[in-house]
Write a structure and sequence with these properties.
Length: 183
């Protein structure tokens, strides 16, 4: 199963179009796709418990109980992860950051023992405004992948001016992930 996490409030926007392109690519290649919309999910920000670390450091679980725990389990079950975020201020959206900040804390210290270790990760940054900031956003996503042990398969910048051809790129990249996880 390939989990596609996307994080925009707009169901008809550029980010949603990218997420659906990824779904189409996975389906078309005969893979199993699960789409998950982070906006609207009850997943709050990290509380930096204790002196900065809570149960995330040694227990590898987050002690702040909300929708995070169920999604953390889904991510661990997935064979590959696709993250599609709108570009906000040259970075991921707040809903994506909330989830990934907490995921990073739980997974980062597991090293090769982590269930995410080595799984291919596809990052998509959708910039619907000026188009600036896709690269800084993808850089943050690459750092995140590195911290949590995911293998950066690709990072795709999508701007409203490049939408037409980049949606094809996203579809093809997601289809390629299906072959990648069979290797
Ligand atoms: C708070 C905020 C910050 C934004 N920052 C950027 C930006 O740095 N670069 C850009 O091209 N667009 C920026 N935008 C525009 C979003 O990237 C644009 O709304 C994008 O299409 C979001 O995807 P959507 O169509 O799914 O809403 C920003 C939008 C918001 C709400």
């Amino acid at each position: 199963m390939i989990l596609v996490l996307w994080s925009s409030p707009n169901d008809g926007g550029l980010t949603a179009a990218c997420a659906h392109a990824a779904e189409k690519g996975i389906d078309g290649a005969g893979g199993e796709c699960k789409l998950y919309k982070l906006d609207g999910a009850i997943i709050g920000s990290c509380h930096a418990c204790g002196n900065g670390w809570g149960t995330c450091r040694d227990g590898h679980v987050c002690q702040v109980q909300d929708g995070f725990q169920a999604l953390h389990e889904e991510v661990k079950k997935a064979e590959s992860l696709v993250a599609v975020t709108p570009v906000y201020w040259g970075d991921m959206s707040e809903s994506a950051k909330n989830f990934f900040d907490r995921l990073r804390r739980c997974e980062a210290l597991l090293g090769q023992k982590g269930e995410l270790h080595g799984k291919p990760f596809l990052a998509v940054a959708a910039a619907g405004g000026s188009g600036n900031g896709t690269l800084s956003c993808l850089t943050q996503m690459e750092r995140l992948a590195m911290h949590i042990g995911l293998r950066m398969f690709d990072g795709i910048p999508v701007k409203r001016f490049t939408r037409q051809y980049q949606l094809n790129t996203v579809e093809c990249a997601a289809a390629a992930l299906v072959s990648e996880i069979k290797k």
